[in-house]
Amino acid sequence: MQLPTAAIVVALPTIHREFGTSIAELQWTVTAFYIPFSAFLIAAGRIADIFGRKRGLLTGTALFAAGSAMSMVAPGVEVLIAGLALSGAGGALMMPSSMSILTNVFTGERRGTAIGLWGAATELVSGIGVLVGGVLTGALDWRWIFAVCIAFSALVAVSAIRGSPESRDPTISRDVDYAGVALSASALTALTLALIQTSSWGWDSAAVVGLLFAAVLLFALFVWNERRSDNPIISFDFFKRRNFAGSTIVIFVLDFSFGALLFFLPLYFQEILDYSPTEVGLLLLPLTGLMVLGSPLGGRVAARVGPRPPIAIGLGLMAAAVCLISTASTSTGYEQMAVPLAMMGFGVGFALTPMNLAAMNAISRDHAGAAAGLLVTLSGLGSTLGVTVTGAVFNEAFTVRTVSDVGDAGVEISRSQAQELDGVLSGATGSTETLDKIAGSKADEAREAVNQAFISALDTSLKLSAALIVVGLVLAMVLMRRTSPADADPVPPVLATGAPRPAPRGTTG
Asked: Which pLDDT score is estimated for 123?
């Protein structure tokens, strides 16, 4: 269920060129999955418990497969975005349903083994997803990513039909907070649309101002609805626990920065340094591989000294890594990027498990499922805003710098013309023709100016991400308490987080 976001990032430059999309439209190919996934995830678990876990898994699988099929045959970026959104909704229903089935079918040690294998599978997809995306895009076509998703859906459906009985929880209330789901999804969509479209509409345009106002109003209505609902999808009482509140800050900034990095790096490697999709998949393996390595190590350290030291070290490594990556130029070699990429991956993993343990140990076992669902939802929110906020900063910086640098090359262009030139980086036909028409004999100088504008905008947007990590680190250290090395009766932690880094991962409790 997580392969689209794990693999699609490596295919972004190819989609950029094939469809002639803007950077803003590329942002939607990532966030389209996360918005419904984040909004529906918590309620999806309750729906599965009420109406049947097997039914929920099959329904989610059908939606996921249908969305993958739409994406596979998409004639343009609009259909691709719609397909990814449908897949996100299906994935939200699949994840808690599959976990509930495992919990219901297996008992004792067999349950632990089953959950461990489930978690290992999500780790594996996250670790090799970018490689799979790179190989499929380079050797075949990016559409094969979704063919694999369809095959995976068929496997899940057959396994569910043949191997798992229907189960539900007859003791829980059948009341589902549909209003909360609708309000959260609408608010996040309005905010995302406003941030992504600022480059073309302008911050002071009526449309952007109206969308931002609508987002604030919808979020306020969401909070009001949750506080009066008998079965809210989010319990704000969780945030009264300092370690849980601090952990939510950590998971948000972690996925914000990782989401931004995984959006821009494939574009940089392929469109500026001219690597192939397969090479990019290989080059990003240290980033994802060391994340998997750092996660259990961070857990062992937290068990001895508490969660704050490994969280501080992990976030510190991330901030330093993002700052180093932001200094990249049009001539930077991979050997100069390898160390900060490894630092970033290890830092994410080293902070991740202690953060999960601190959050889940702060909540009673009776509320562990809701708390874990909230953490994964915030993970998806961080990934979404990481792409949209840094993308908005990037787009504005790119436009301003393009106008300036192309002007210095002797070609005067407007903001609207500058916005059309981001496709020059990928070799999109429309953008290349526009540049040749505008610049004439100075097309080569103008093209180099566009490349330099990309590098400048990348530096600005990643520095913002690094600053947010530092702020999150300070806030988390102030909020979180010094806990004993290990709680007497710890709650099973969330396995890992989300991101269009590779993808969101599930929970164990």
From this structure: 54
